[in-house]
Design a protein that fits this description.
Elements (H helix, E strand, L loop, with lengths): L5 H10 L6 E3 L2 E3 L6 E5 L6 E6 L3 H17 L7 H17 L1 H12 L3 H22 L6 E3 L5 E9 L2 E5 L5 H14 L3 E5 L6 H13 L6 E3 L4 H10 L5 E5 L2 H13 L4 E5 L5 E4 L6 H13 L11 E5 H16 L19 H16 L3 E4 L3 E2 L7 E2 L2 E4 L6 H4 L6 E7 L2 H9 L3 E2 L1 E5 L3 H10 L4 E4 L14 E2 L16 E9 L1
Parallel strand pairs: 7-8, 7-10, 8-9, 10-11, 12-13, 12-20, 13-18, 17-18, 20-21
Antiparallel strand pairs: 1-2, 3-4, 5-6, 6-23, 14-17, 15-16, 19-22
Helix pairs in contact: 2-8, 3-5, 3-7, 4-5, 4-7, 5-6, 10-11
Amino acid sequence: MSDHSFEYWSSMAETLDHEGRAFIDGQFCPAAQSATFDCISPIDGKVLAKVAHCDQADVDRTVTIARERFEQGVWSGLPPAKRKGILLKFAALVEQEAETLAITETLDMGKPIAHALSVDVSATVRAIQWTAEAIDKLYDEIAPTGQDELGLVTREPVGIVAAIVPWNFPMIMAAWKIAPALAMGNSVILKPSEKSPLTALRMAALAKQAGIPDGVFNVLPGFGHTTGKALALHDDVDTLVFTGSTAVARQLMVYAGESNMKRVWTEAGGKSPNVVFADAPDLDMAAEAAAEAICFNQGEVCTAGSRLLVEDAIADVFMDKVRAAVARWKPGHPLDPATTVGAIVDEAQLNRILSYIDKGQKEGAQLRVGGERVRPVEGGYFVTPTVFEGVDADMSIAREEIFGPVLSVIRFKDEAQALALANDSIYGLAAAVWTRDLSRAHRFARGLRAGSVWVNQYDGGDMTAPFGGYKQSGNGRDKSLHAFDKYSELKATWIKL
């Protein structure tokens, strides 16, 4: 990680020029109607750039170009090894631009610069690199047949992929989707969140520089109800991939049904349980992990450990440790490398978080840590990490995704009750269990209805493991070789010999 000072990053922020135009057919251009919206930094409420607001005309034009390039085979027709080389160059260029991308992410969505650099940029590079390396290692199949027939099973690109990504990890979420989509030979249209569109546009320029042909990778900024809706309803988009809220995921599936039955792959909300048994191997480590699970990225994480389930026998001792650990996560200026809690992405999200803190108190939960708006930077959107104890499983703060640093603590008596509480949610994205009992760890992990389960840690895994959810946390998987399934068709060719 860079050892640059607050002064270095502040000076860089003052001189940074932000690109706000759409990227279509290898060129930056204004929206068809010249419409724009203000991209506002949550750090101080100031406008960073005027960003193109793309509408139906922009979507129609971009889809037409992307289809032409796909049919021409300028990318889809390249040998896998050629695509691999270009994507590896893309990853290298992202790595070279690490500081510019990191500070852009920090200014745009408020995360601490230390995290943007060490987590977001590095994970983005890794995602593109790993996926590129996998391209020429995916084999097709030959079906078992008699001597007079030959059955081939081949994997082919689906065509046009629209990727709608969220504002909390803009680069990482984009890379998880565009890398395998491009690797398979598809044309891609990326719609970044209107709350954090700037790194997507910077990455578009790097993709062109790496050698991805014009029209194969496009970026259309705009709002969900305009740009996103137009992509979801478009009859010539073959696949739609999305990360965001469960409510929006449901609507996108409706749009797909109303149009061309395009495939829709969603990674939606979460209310992840972090379950700590009395025989956890290290309560100090578990407490620090519980704090990080809700405080990292200001709690704006789909897998945030927002429900902490603690066994009665250790609850008093353990919660002393958790409260102390959470209190050490303090909001500060995101450009200060020492800051661990940055700004909430915008005023609307800050007000949402504060409303849940108010609701938790009205429903009878005990506010033990935080819960206040603070102003380490004038004009910015900051809130102190918050711990509620005495939470009932039926309370709003225990059931609804807040997407902020608000922890609900629920006590349990035994393993059966812990599992029932953990699974008592419409979501099923992730879960963790802390125990030194190997049998319990396996038994409990099998019983959890979640796409990712971590044992004696929180948020483990890497690019080799799939990521996605059960229930209303979505379908499909990002990362790993399984991600390629979303961006490819399987064709059976049966030959009489």
